[in-house]
Write a structure and sequence with these properties.
alpha+beta; five-stranded mixed β-sheet; 16 helices; 16 strands; 20% strand; elongated; binds adenosine monophosphate
Length: 437
């Protein structure tokens, strides 16, 4: 075969594409209960939206961002001219920055207005090393809420996320909810400095990447998959000892709301989350089966500083994203199928070619009546049409033959009971509907 899908991408074939549709519909239903409305943003944005001045050193810039060049930019390259900021585009690695940008651009939270609650669904792109549960193009559903300050909003977001997983079919006991607080602009710098000092003391024991992180982003070392770094960072200072009174108070209130809602959680002081914009509450949901090392199926948190960076005024924000492909692996391991076809087709078979026009018309009548109907378009014999109908798991066959047709009738065969009955040509849709019911 000449072409294959690019490394780290996969086609969503019909069963998966149907599951993706069911996944989005479930999100719309569950998140809709909490007031979330759908939004669609472009798949590419100005690269600066995702980098936001982090320069060439941050994880996002060095590892994850797929760059896109507009035709104009390519022409510039040919002419050996530097790219303008407007021409540096990137495929979105996540939904949050785009949604926050859209909220700012369209002023969806006017002064004194209610919070903006938006949900999105679509492909995301990260240039990571592909492995099971880690793709370069994958699909996420996520929510963003801008304008809510109260800790109850943090708790509500987590409860809603857990409700979504359960309604998809994951059992509560198969999931672990981890939560932490990453502090705010007041207490985070002090904590980061303490972690940095600790890492400097242990520099020789850390992997090359974490050695670089000492300067660029020390907290990300908690996330390092290198077992030795993991062990070293076990002894690093914990945020709980550095939280300011307001962050501590928020964290306690969030925990109290979760307890009141009967949601079990584990406090994980190492949970730092990949994106640098988080402040205060962060959470992640992991599953124990089906995923190997990529066990996180979703996560998010509060990001009170992001709107100030993306728009022109501060607005508290929070949100989360869940990963479709990983949840599918977890659902598969749990034996749950979403978006499985519920409706079996009706197969309209022809005895010979002379009756094809009438069969064609019966197919249209069935579809007009809202019945899923299939027919032969390959000139097959009656026997092989029945074979195809069997492979499609058809519930019924409508057999159109010249002799019966001359008497104004067709035969309906029920594949489950093997019963056959003759019906008048004008009653086919009605009879099929009542047999299916
Ligand atoms: P994040 O946006 O990194 O917080 O990720 C949210 C969720 O998206 C994760 O919990 C995963 O379920 C999923 N996810 C993130 N990165 C990938 C990836 N490269 N491939 C597949 N799923 C991913």
């Amino acid at each position: 075969m000449a072409y294959k899908a690019p490394k780290g991408t996969q086609d969503l074939l019909p069963a998966q594409a149907r599951a993706w549709e069911a996944f989005k519909a479930k999100a719309l239903q569950v998140f809709g209960l909490y007031g979330y409305e759908p939004v669609e943003t472009p798949i590419f944005e100005k690269a600066e939206l995702f980098l936001r001045g982090c320069g060439e050193t941050c994880d996002a810039a060095t590892k994850e961002i797929f760059s896109v060049f507009s035709l104009g930019a390519v022409n510039c390259l040919k002419a050996d001219q530097p790219l303008k900021a407007d021409q540096k585009l990137a495929l979105r690695p996540e939904g949050t920055a785009s949604v926050v940008r859209a909220i700012a651009e369209h002023n969806l939270v006017p002064q004194g207005g209610a919070p903006a609650k938006l949900l999105y669904a679509g492909p995301m792109f990260r240039c990571e090393r592909p492995q099971k549960g880690r793709l370069r193009q994958f699909h996420q559903v996520g929510i963003e809420c801008l304008g809510a300050t109260d800790p109850s909003a943090d708790a509500e977001m987590i409860i809603m996320c857990m409700r979504f997983f359960e309604e998809l079919g994951l059992k509560r006991k198969s999931m672990t909810l981890l939560i932490n607080s990453m502090g705010c602009a007041q207490c985070r710098p002090g904590y980061t400095a303490a972690v940095k000092a600790f890492m400097q003391e242990h520099e020789a024991e850390l992997c090359e990447e974490c050695q670089r992180r000492i300067e660029t982003n020390p907290l990300r070392a908690f996330d390092c998959k290198n077992p030795q770094c993991y062990e070293v960072m076990e002894a690093a200072p914990r945020f709980s000892g550095h939280l300011c009174p307001s962050c501590r108070d928020r964290h306690e209130k969030v925990c109290a709301y979760l307890q009141a809602a009967g949601i079990d959680y584990v406090e994980d002081p190492r949970l730092v989350r990949g994106f640098d914009y988080y402040t205060g509450t962060v959470f992640e949901v992991q599953v124990t089966e089906g995923l190997g090392s990529q066990s996180a199926i979703g996560g998010g948190g509060r990001y009170d500083g992001l709107m100030g960076e993306v728009g022109d005024r501060d607005l508290p924000g929070l949100g989360f994203a869940v990963g479709f492909e990983r949840i599918m692996l977890a659902l598969e391991a749990a034996g749950v199928c979403i978006g499985c076809p519920q409706v079996k087709p009706v197969y309209v078979a022809v005895v010979d070619d002379s009756v094809r026009p009438q069969a064609f018309s019966i197919l249209q009548q069935l579809r007009d009546a809202g019945i899923r109907a299939e027919g032969d378009t390959q000139g097959r014999s009656l026997k092989s049409q029945f074979k195809v109908a069997g492979k499609m798991d058809a519930a019924l066959a409508v057999v159109v033959g010249p002799d019966e047709l001359a008497a104004g009738q067709v035969t309906i065969r029920d594949f489950s009971t093997h019963e056959e009955r003759q019906v008048g040509i004008g009653q086919v849709a009605q009879q099929v509907a009542s047999l299916l019911a």
